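Two proteins were folded this term; both appear here.
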Amino acid sequence: MKMAMIGLGRMGMNMAKRLLQGGHEVVACNRSPEKIDALVKKEGAIGAYSLAEAVEKLSTPRILWLMLPAGRAVDDHIDQLKDLLAPGDIIIDGGNTFYKDDLKRAKRLLDKNIRYVDVGVSGGIWGLKMGYCLMTGGDKQVVEYLVPIFKTLAPEEGYLYCGETGAGHFVKMVHNGIEYGMMQAYGEGFEILEASSYGKDFDYRKIAHLWNQGSVVRSWLLELLEDAFGHDARLKDIKGFVEDSGEGRWTLQQAIDTAVPAPVMALSLFQRFRSRQENTFSDRVLAALRREFGGHAVKDAEK
């Protein structure tokens, strides 16, 4: 299929590469032209240096995948695109958008019969090689039309139609809330090990590796943690300052709205707030995990 990828950040660039490698035609559009040029030269993308140019280079029904920071950037792009697109064209939002924003955007585009699909994407910087887990929402017929794209981006059984508009991002929101709790548990566990009388002798890379050999706490996060400890045995080179990108807060608000107790997610979010005030071993574990799976920036430890 032919489509445009709008936004060539950590995720968008690799997703565009995976689509190109899978035989799709990708019109690449980004705020900074250097990334467009690189994708055109090295991967065979079609360059577009404005939204108008991207629309012009697509065939109908036009498909535009927005891979942008959640919030105003998405709204600004949609406001521009709605005056450039025609009825039947499709906008996909693949960022970490709040699902209630999906409902507003779909309604705004409905007057012009422009279709809107929300896709929660998980896979981080490893998605190019391993594929992306895709959680989709919107009109089922439109989503089914896009299946060739999803099949290329995802590993086998790695995409799912979750329901009407907002459902994809809603499932991704809860997914990230769960992720917060899992990461916090690993961080606390390794800090308990570090604080013990045995701690100075522990090889955390080997322990992380061991726990992935058939134990009930094995996971891809532990694989990434093994890699992190392999680079820095005591994570001394990074500061335990842990950001949150919004999904944990939204998940907790949803839990409050529906009276669902979620103490683990709540505490894991509050721990991230606390991490910005002091530097602990568990927070260095979390910061290292975010760097390993998502390429997120870490703060250098103070010397």
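Next, the second protein.
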Amino acid sequence: MDIPRGGGNGGDGPGGPRRPTGPGGVWGSGGGGGHRPPDVAVFLKQAGDFYNEFRKKVPSIGIVIGILAVIIIGFGSFYIVAPEELGVVKRFGKVVRTAGPGPHFKIPLIEDVLKPQVTKVHRIEVGFETVDPGPPPRYNPIKKEALMLTGDENIVMVEFIVQYKIEDPAAFLFNIRDQKKALKDASEASMREVVGKNPIDEVLTEGRFRVQQETRQLLQETMNSYGSGISVVAVQLQDVLPPEQVANAFRDVASAREDREKSEEQAEGYRNDLIPKAKGEAEKIVNEAMAYREAKINQAKGDASRFLQVLKEYRKAQDVTHQRIYVETMEEVLGRMEKVIIGGAAEKNLMPYLPVGRTRAVETGGAK
């Protein structure tokens, strides 16, 4: 492309000579003029013209910029803390205060807010990971975390969950780095220590609850030593399984143990059924004996009292009382005996013979 060139050092008008310009514009080189510095006055004049034209087109640019600045500062100074959160306000990286749920203000560009969830119960999984919560849920075992050695040198796969809450938000955020990883590592270490102190039978069966409690206590002590601000709510064993190579043998042992426990429960049930019956029967016999004893005592007391009354009356009138007692006694004795009564004319012709052990009645002349 041919560029017209001027012949003198005149102005920039249409008839005057032009400054040499090359591919680089005012910074380029002419055909015979060499390198020349830019014209600063022209550059400033062009910038001023551009600014004036821009102000004419947008007369309220200052107002717009001011409004945008106010909006940005307003939104930057306003924040909301959710009900399950607690706001931790930092100023130049230092914690200056905490804020509860609700709307709050902070100094924009100077203060920053972190919002950990302090009321929510968080959970971590050790020994497995949830692939799909389902339903039905699907899990993947993590053997390097789950395989543990028991106190009697057996290997088990322990999968468990740790539930925790954030008790001290500032300590949780700033005392340890990567809180979840630190908690997971401490949980695995605590479980390994507890499992390593117990035989395999305790871990697989009746000792599960105790293992959970001891692990939670040891984990809490560990996190307190870190100053983590974490409160361990619970440790829950999901699955405690033997290795696949010996799973069948462990199932047989578990089945035999269940049979033993079933037999023990049946024997305990029979014992609990039989002992109350025996106790009830014993109580019944004792009560009957006591009642018989009281009846005999009362009867003896009554007989003694009656005898004393008769004795008192006998002493007042001995002949009459003696006759009455004799009659009553004979009435009682004769009433139980076999007897024959003969009267009238038949008495003269009667042979005095009375066989023992026979009962007979002879009636003569209407007498018996």
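DSSP finds nine helices and eleven strands in the chain. Residues 247-316 form the longest helix (70 residues). These notes refer to the second protein only.
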